[in-house]
Amino acid sequence: MKLRFWGVRGFYPIASAATQQFGGNTAAIEIQGASGARLLVDLGTGAIPFGRALMGQEFGRGQGHLSVLLTHTHLDHTAGLPFFVPAFVPGNRIDIYGAASVLSLRGVLDDLFDSHVCPINSIENLSATLTISDVCDRRFSVGEFGISQLCVPHGHGSGAAWRVRADGRDVVLMTGIDHPNGTILQRAAEFARGADLLLHDCTWKAPNELKLRWGGSTLGQALQMAKAAQVGRLCLTHHAPGCDDASIRAMLTEAQRTTDIEVCAAAEGDECPV
Amino acid sequence: MEVTFWGVRGSYPTPAPETVRYGGNTSCVEVRALSGDRLVVDAGTGLTRLGDFLANSDQLAGTHHILLSHLHWDHIQGLPFFAPAYDPRARISIHAMPDTAKPLAKVLAGVARHEFFPAALDDFAAPFDFHEVMANQQFAPQTFRVMPFRLNHPSGAMGYRIDADGTSCAYVCDTAPFTEVLHKRHFLRGLEPLDDKDRQELQALRDGVVKVITDCDTVIYDTHFLPEEYAKFPHFGHSTPDQALALCTGIGIRQLVLYHHAPNHDDAILDQMANVYANLGQQVGLQVVTAREGLVLQVGADDAGTRRVRP
User: Fold this and answer.
1) Which of A109, A117, A134 to probe by mutation at the B interface, max B CB count within 10 Å?
2) Residue of B nearest to A214 (CA)
3) How far apart are CA B182 and CA B200, in angstroms?
4) Mean pLDDT, each 10-residue run in order, chain A (274 residues)
């Protein structure tokens, strides 16, 4: 199993010469099994180039089938959907799984297409077949992938942490999770226990953003989680838009100095074996 | 009067190495009068960069006037991340066309909500006020005079002529040409037949635009498509540089700015477009400039030799 990062930025995309190494597209992470089967986690703007890359294959012929796991519905995890080209090809099938909340996930995603904000007017105008499932604390499988989900608090609503198992390996994705101040959610640590790789959000040195209750976690919390869950490796993602390449490199150096767990920082375009 | 481009991209941001020179942030233009007064037109992701600039230069306090051409994502996505919105000394005044059913404040509150953003409209430290603008009814934020006019775009869009310091610029974005498609509210899968009433309305729209922007010094125009792309997607609500040139020729305009670049137009394509259309413009007496992020243009003065780009 391996990951490919199509978008690793949090909050909003940032197009700048100073962010070319880690990239400016918002959350979209591809998971590939050894057989070539794939899953997508989140539909931020990174999903737009991913969708274009899919078009050369069966998705261009209307014979593609993709499952998407959403961590939550903030725009940095969903804004790519109205521009996800495979969704405009009849015959393709896209299954979206997200956290249940008081509003239906289909209704919230449909509002992305509302005529005020989008010329497509309704999610019903997408030509592909879309299934949208709200789930909470569930286990299911998609092809060769075994999937578990944990509902976690994020922002003013709920988000999902995902654990994906394939080829005998486990990756846990926590890219929209708010831990209690100064500590971590214990049930999230249980959920991530023993994973080979933990992807965790980290709005390092972005005190303004945390002060503004934008949600998200600190570097300290990401490290604490990795340690408590005894994961094999920690990958930091969801970089704050104010963090340029130099500050992400500095964060990584600091992280590596303060823990004996292997730590890396997700960069757009990179692949990461699990 | 001076215009700064903070975001020049259409549809969605393109943070890629291939677009780093012209820029990947979505629509946002700042207009400054000699008095120091400032108007912002559109609130795409470029607005976050303007917000950072205002924060770094201690200019967060006071009233920030933002004109919105329409509410499509690429024109509003930066609003919830605009630094002055988090400062209690600031006030944000939004000017936009009215919706047929709901007040503007309600429409924007339905977008800037917790399902989509970490901060919703009610969370900001700065108060927001909303002003619905009507076509051909001039209003005067600070020392500017602003004249809105209707454009041809899905669910509608408003263009603006802005006058100050004895000169003027116009923002004509987003718009389709006024020929093959009359955009209404419904979703278009392709061209639909026009009846006589539609054709009359298109002509009236075109006449309205020409009337307002005649004798403007500088016109910023939606030139999203190259002609061969437009031929495939005439129903998307955007124009080509050729269509912009045709409309702006012979009506007293000095300078045309190509703007709202398609996401697939990388730096190499835009270099080429800049070249081709600068030459075509010269043939009809128009100075044609291709917008890039950070570009600062003087309105009312030929600054081709001294033009600057913000770092």
Assistant:
1) A117
2) B118
3) 10
4) 97 93 97 96 98 95 98 96 98 95 92 95 97 94 97 86 97 90 90 98 61 73 95 96 92 94 97 95
